């Protein structure tokens, strides 16, 4: 009987452990680039974070400001309420796009309701990648190496496999919006903040944001939930290293 109780307790402890992700982080800067892969340094976020997605009013206004045509679409429940993100918060209702260039197809649908506009948005973001002083600082002297791996995005032969972890900061800067990415590879929420690198005054309680996820491709998070286990739990422990200052080195494509 005692052995059975011990087994039950250990099982419950296992369920508890697998129902939490690694936490919340933000990228500090790139440390190395090889082809389209990159090492980058991140730090923990201790501030409160929230699930509060952009609404149709924001989408229409932003799409128009980009010189693009908005296509009516229902992305989020109109009654969706702001919810605090916790260690037990995982993506729930997901909108999936085709794998090829899924980052910009997801963004095109989020902003304009039309995945087919992805190439136009990608080329607009590419201008930020090339010219933004903030993004150049983020790339930490590795911008030219990354651009060489991308090819000539400004013309038709844009890259089909952009580095999500690198380019989402450029997207956040260009669109002037915070972007949350849940990575199943490292089991963490990553915040790409529009005010990077000024993270010391981080306050997103009243900020509407874009929420994406990535496993083998990028998709849109339409809602969050508190399941017992992540829906697409991936290997975690071998994909990160911590140092004494709690910064983390990741190598990602």
Q: Could you walk me through the main structural features you see in this protein, from its secondary elements to its overall organization?
A:
With 253 residues, this protein is an alpha+beta fold. The chain has a single domain (2-252), classed as Alpha-Beta Complex (Cathepsin B, Chain A), CATH 3.90.70. Helices cover 31% and strands 22% of the residues. It has seven helices and 13 strands. The protein has helices at 2-18, 56-65, 102-112, 118-131, 133-139, 143-150, 164-175, and strands at residues 24-34, 37-44, 50-51, 83-84, 90-91, 94-96, 179-183, 188-192, 210-214, 218-221, 224-225, 241-242, 248-252. It has a nine-stranded mixed β-sheet with strand order 6-10-9-7-8-1-2-13-12. A hairpin with a 3-residue loop joins strand 9 and strand 10 (218-221). Helix 3 packs across helix 4 (118-131) and helix 4 crosses helix 7 (164-175).
Compose a concise summary of this entry:
Helix 3 (102-112) crosses helix 4 (118-131) and helix 4 (118-131) crosses helix 7. The chain has helices at 2-18, 56-65, 102-112, 118-131, 133-139, 143-150, 164-175, and strands at 24-34, 37-44, 50-51, 83-84, 90-91, 94-96, 179-183, 188-192, 210-214, 218-221, 224-225, 241-242, 248-252. It has a 9-stranded mixed beta sheet. It has a two-stranded antiparallel ribbon with strand order 3-4.
- SSE order, as H and E? HEEEHEEEHHHHHEEEEEEE
- The total number of structural domains is 1
Oligomeric assembly: single chain
Strand order of the largest sheet: 6-10-9-7-8-1-2-13-12
Extended strand count: 13
Give the overall form: globular
